[in-house]
Amino acid sequence: MSQLAERPPRKSVRKGSPPAATTRPARRPGQTLARWRRDRLLLLLAAPGVLVVLVFHYLPLLGNVIAFKGYLPFLTIAESPWVGLDNFQVIFSGDPLFVNALTNTLIITLIQVLFVFPLPLALALLLNEVISERLKRIVQSVLYMPHFLSWVIVVALFQQILGNAGMVNTLLREHDMTTFSIIGVPELFEVLITSQVIWKDTGWGTIIFLAAISRVDTSLYEAAAMDGAGALRRMWHVTLPAIRSVFILLLILRLGDALTVGFEQIILQQGAVGATASEVLDTYVYNHGIVGGNWGQAAAVGLTKGVISVLLVLGANTLAHKFGERGVYQK
Amino acid sequence: MRGLILTIGCAVVILPFLAVVSTSLATQEEVTENGGFVLLVREPTLASYQAILSGGVVTRALLISIIVTIAGTLLSLACTIGLAYALSRPGSLGSRPILLAVLFTMLFSPGMIPMYLVVKQLGLLDNLLALILPVLINAFNVIVMREFFLDIPDELMESARIDGANDLRILVRIVLPLSKAVISVIGLFYAVGYWNAFFNALLYISSPEKWPLQLVLRTYVVNETPMGVDQVSAGSDSLPPQLSIQMAILVISVVPILLVYPFLQKHFTKGLMIGAVKG
């Protein structure tokens, strides 16, 4: 992090050094053939990657046509008959299973944006106050770690610790205290998955805030201290404004994912609590389409979800520009 | 107060692991005595590990996970380096549209059903390649690596070019040796991804004998399907406690992550920041 802060701003370095132009002349019309010959090795190097991106990112985009088709697994996509917007009926006619999935998704998103999203910032502010550099690094190492575990591992750990036969309840039972069950209880499903998300990713989320904090000009703190600002006021008037744009950037990205709430995490625990409490849009697409065989309808839901997500990011970004923030990309 | 919160935070992360490792090492008596979990094991035994690693379901899944992780990581790195390098040479043919096309994949995901259909049309269902090819390229990693390549002084490559080196030679002789740090981090990111892959395995792999470790973990630990003697291994008649076996599977799937974690940790903040600042 500190290395990054010390590095000179790259843009100006690049601008100040024109050698790029000497070895690789800027685009000149009519020279495509010459450029092709010059760059053929580069193109060859890029080819496998480009191929993968085309086949596994852009070809599936085309595959979304099955949202408008009556696809059956024994027909090819081309052979399947067009059905217009019929598959979108599940969305517009308010199919109860779909509405349930949508409602759950929105509730979970709301909970996560309100309660989970600000946590890394709070933790980063806490970590920032730790004076000893060594201690800070140890704490960071420990708190980042769960991010690298798979959801299967996290869910398994939670079950073993908090499950009805898990460690905590066993301990409580031994001491004749009332046990509590959080796993497999539909009413507590949101609490369960939220606490799992917090456990897994709060520490990891601090990285970006800590980096932003480390780049705050220290003379601002000194000036504020001279003017008699205490630690809390310095945090409020110096640190927080300085990292506002990072915060807003992450918020926009999170909002773009508003309709995506952990597929792996939820599908793993769906058996225990049932679909009513746990079905979200992604699990609906999986259960309704791949498991249930309603390919076209599931693809229609997936496509709508993807389009809305992109619109959400673009919309939130425009809003950020209106408020004078940089946003995800510049205008 | 701050110290207290941070201590509790660390304890919440560490204690579950302690319990899991201890239980995996416990004997039947100790498990029964504790009514389940063992926080600090008194007489550690490797019986559970011996049982699951002597040629049963877990051994096979472990091998599959290792193969997929190694092959996948190498392929991913090769493709990512090639793409990132081509995109980092200023003014190279087609680099702008390709860069935009790669960036765009970060914004829009094609959707589960079309993805499944593509994998199916390519004949990759129930093939271990389905765990590798769809996730071979991660746009974020390409961008991070490209940024790193852009930071290498142009003068180095220029002088090599004057000496008659072509792009491939420059990549191998100059760029790669200077990029060991970023290559190792991105490689580890890919490796962790392949090791943890659950979603793709669930979607594309149907025969149990091709299951990677994460699916075995889900079946026998999360869903608590009991393991019979034939699933565990051949030839041992007295099985270690079921709970210890489950915890041993859990430990085995965590250990590789814990082993690479310190190396990962050294570099990831820097790598992540490059991507975040530019992204």
What does this structure look like?
The complex is a heterodimer of chains A (331) and B (279). Chain A is mostly helical. Helix content of chain A is 70%, strand content 0%. In chain B, helix 5 (95-107) packs across helix 7. Chain B has one domain: MetI-like (MetI-like fold), CATH 1.10.3720.10. Chain B has 14 helices and no strands. Chain B has 279 residues and is an all-alpha fold.
How would you summarize this macromolecular structure in one to three sentences?
Chain B: Keywords: Cell membrane, Membrane, Sugar transport, Transmembrane, Transmembrane helix, Transport. The complex is a heterodimer of chains A (331) and B (279). By secondary structure, chain A is an all-alpha fold.
Present the secondary structure layout.
The complex is a heterodimer of chains A (331) and B (279).
Chain A: H1 2-6, H2 10-16, H3 19-23, H4 32-63, H5 89-92, H6 96-116, H7 119-129, H8 133-144, H9 151-162, H10 167-174, H11 189-214, H12 218-226, H13 231-242, H14 244-256, H15 263-273, H16 275-278, H17 281-291, H18 295-322
Chain B: H1 2-24, H2 28-34, H3 47-52, H4 57-88, H5 95-107, H6 112-121, H7 139-150, H8 154-162, H9 167-178, H10 180-196, H11 199-204, H12 213-222, H13 229-232, H14 242-278
Beta-strand content of chain A = under 5%
What is the top-level CATH class of chain B? Answer: Mainly Alpha
Provide the residue-averaged pLDDT of chain B: 85
Counting DSSP H or I runs of 4 or more residues, the number of helices of chain B is: 14
Number of strands of chain A: 0
What spatial form of chain B do the alpha-carbon principal axes imply?
A: elongated
CATH superfamily of chain B: MetI-like
Number of helices of chain A: 18
The profile of the biggest β sheet of chain A is: none
Report on the biggest sheet of chain B: none
Q: Which chain pair has the greatest contact?
A: A-B, 100 and 99 residues
Shape of chain A: globular
User: What is the gyration radius of chain A calculated from CA atoms?
Assistant: 26 Å
List the helices and strands of chain A in order: HHHHHHHHHHHHHHHHHH
Low-confidence stretches of chain A: 1-23
Which quaternary structure do these chains form? heterodimer
Pfam families (chain B): BPD_transp_1
Domain ABC transmembrane type-1 (chain B): 62-264
Protein name (chain B): Multiple sugar transport system permease protein/putative aldouronate transport system permease protein
Membrane topology (chain B): Multi-pass membrane protein
